[in-house]
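Following up on my earlier thread - several people asked me to post the actual chain instead of describing it. Fair enough. Here it is, all 467 residues.
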Amino acid sequence: MLAKPRPDAQPTQLALAAVVVALLAGLGAGLALAVGPLGAAGAAARAGPDLKVSGVSASTGSLSAGDPLKVRVTTRNVGRRPAKRSSTRLYLSRDAKKSKGDVRLGSTGIPALKPRKSSRRTIRATVSAAAPPAGYRLLACADDVLKIREKNERNNCRTARGSLTVTGGGGPIGGGSPIGGGGGGSATNPNDADGDGSINSVDCAPQDPSTYPGAPDEPDAPGFRDTDCDGIDGKEAGAVFVSTAGNDANPGTRSQPKQSVQDGIALADVENRPVYVSSGTFAGQLNVIDGVAVYGGYAPADWSRSAANVTRFLSTESGGAAIAENVVSSTTLQHVTLADTPQGPGASSYGIRAVDSPGLVLDTVVVRAATGSTGVDGEAGADGADGAVGLPGFAGSCNDSAGSGGFAGGGVAGRAGGIGGPGAGETTGDAQAGGPGAGGTPGGAGGATPGGNDPGGPGSNGSPGAP
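Reply from S.P.:
Thanks for posting it. Predicted structure:
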């Protein structure tokens, strides 16, 4: 049974509670999905995740437009349910509360968080030219785009201690009004054409307000958009990179990727970081770890991403090309191909096996299972039992003819026993002239008495010879 999709699920995603995708020999294409039902929306909200910023710190003082700003932010899930990947965003606020006039600075991706778990990130932002000279409070807001249905949506933001003073680069331009952090940048600030808070010279898409340095950028397929201007689809900072041309002695960065996907996953598991995998074929089984997303389709040379870049996992191990067990946090497999080739006589083939994994999300995933292997030949049957003893032969005649053999005996295993031996005939004696004929020599042994086991008696003596 398939559960109703969550309101926050993407159309191309499938959340699975217990999945077994199997193609077995002789069954053709087969797909079995078992998805546990979701709770009621109200109950889910009451017991759901709850993200909040538990810590935010930055150096305070005076800054000008274009100056760099490094902020340390800790995001925590204080709810009772896992929270999927989200983003935490920074603002310059005049009143320490999130409001329309706040100036957006930047953001960072937050991995999926289990209940009572935290993620600490460093956001490197640039003071926007949209901020007029004034004193500000630094504000950090978890799940700022309201991507996650939370237990409490009013506790997401936190202000840093102290204040920041912007001394230049903002304010009225050409006699216009002060520049806020909302839209309409092109009307009041020609240096920020799309009004997203990033000046045109550093904005990789100055006409697109959804794309700017520091914007949320979770890998997406098939769009593959780079919305944070770091050169790749997704967040370079905090990700683990794996390439067929990598080395497992490497730290797993974009310039020094690892080679083994499982080594990359083990490294990413420390803080539930995502794993970005290049195109190519990776031999072995993919073991999915709770909270560690795997994104394929990256070019190994420049880490650009497209549908033509195929990341393929080819397994010859039992159990399938991918295995997921007890995956409860939101964990995405995106733009990968899972292929299984069974080895050994009688082996089955599975594309992916997932058990007790309501957090597993399959997004643009190709699953291919092969025909099961041919079974071994059966053992040879045991030897049949001996046939029954043949029936006795018929009695020999007195004219030198042997008696015919007895009929074949019946067989226990279906085959007849051998033919009984023939009865012996009597040999005619030589006649001698003028004298009594010599007694004929005894006849040969006769066939067995019908129904008995004894041979027939000797043949009679021959008649006396003629004079």
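The mean pLDDT is 74. That should answer part of your original question.
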